[in-house]
Amino acid sequence: GAVVSQHPSRVICKSGTSVKIECRSLDFQATTMFWYRQFPKQSLMLMATSNEGSKATYEQGVEKDKFLINHASLTLSTLTVTSAHPEDSSFYICSARAGLQETQYFGPGTRLLVL
Amino acid sequence: LAKTTQPISMDSYEGQEVNITCSHNNIATNDYITWYQQFPSQGPRFIIQGYKTKVTNEVASLFIPADRKSSTLSLPRVSLSDTAVYYCLVGYYNTDKLIFGTGTRLQVFP
């Protein structure tokens, strides 16, 4: 299957700071990328959908000004958690799809801990 | 998007065949069925996808009855490394965003 990477794999930050997480499709061009959040023992929750070159579409209840998504190229999408707070501590997972009717592949996830 | 229902958990022993059934009563005509596997602290991994009847790959088989209101993921001869959460999702051939349900937590014992 296609490879999707995330960086960093884990990050610890202080409350009030911003954190950027990168998602890259390594061997294909991703027209669409998705960002999920997963709390312990829970399922994945879709946060937003981003298409290359356009604004991300956020799911209901997800603050777009807090979770900034940029999909500037066909191989890179970034999620910035602005003014992070302890309740933002979670496992963030991205996924990428090469195009319509293509399988969605997931990255390894980024563990965020906000102190 | 069709809603799916799966058992919360299942137990098995090494070497046994495991069948996990997913209900999707409201599946639409153009929807496909996709299964993912997730280990702790990792992203989901694609297992198999199908539309109707039976699909088989090197990892699993997917059985879909004619009415397509359910599907069964079959894992032959499971090992301890198959202990994971398995998610069933439906959507229009990957053009839809994937909405995850609760998944089935499979525990394989020696």
General description of the model:
- The complex is a heterodimer of chains A (115) and B (110).
- Chain A is mostly beta strands and 115 residues long.
- Chain A has no helices and eleven strands.
- Chain A has strands at residues 4-7, 10-13, 19-25, 32-38, 45-51, 57-58, 67-73, 76-81, 90-97, 104-106, 110-114.
- In chain A, strands 2, 4, 5, 6, 9, 10 and 11 form a seven-stranded mixed β-sheet that branches.
- Chain A starts with a strand and ends with a strand.
- The mean pLDDT of chain A is 92.
- Chain B is mainly β and 110 residues long.
- Helices cover 0% and strands 49% of the residues of chain B.
- Chain B is built from no helices and nine strands.
- In chain B, the strands form two sheets. A five-stranded mixed β-sheet of chain B has the order 1-9-8-3-4, with no helix packed on it.
- The chains are: A mainly beta (115), B mainly beta (110).
Layout of helices and strands:
The complex is a heterodimer of chains A (115) and B (110).
Chain A: E1 4-7, E2 10-13, E3 19-25, E4 32-38, E5 45-51, E6 57-58, E7 67-73, E8 76-81, E9 90-97, E10 104-106, E11 110-114
Parallel strand pairs in A: 2-11
Antiparallel strand pairs in A: 1-3, 3-8, 4-5, 4-9, 5-6, 7-8, 9-10, 9-11
Chain B: E1 9-13, E2 18-23, E3 31-38, E4 45-50, E5 53-56, E6 61-64, E7 70-75, E8 84-92, E9 104-109
Parallel strand pairs in B: 1-9
Antiparallel strand pairs in B: 2-7, 3-4, 3-8, 5-6, 6-7, 8-9
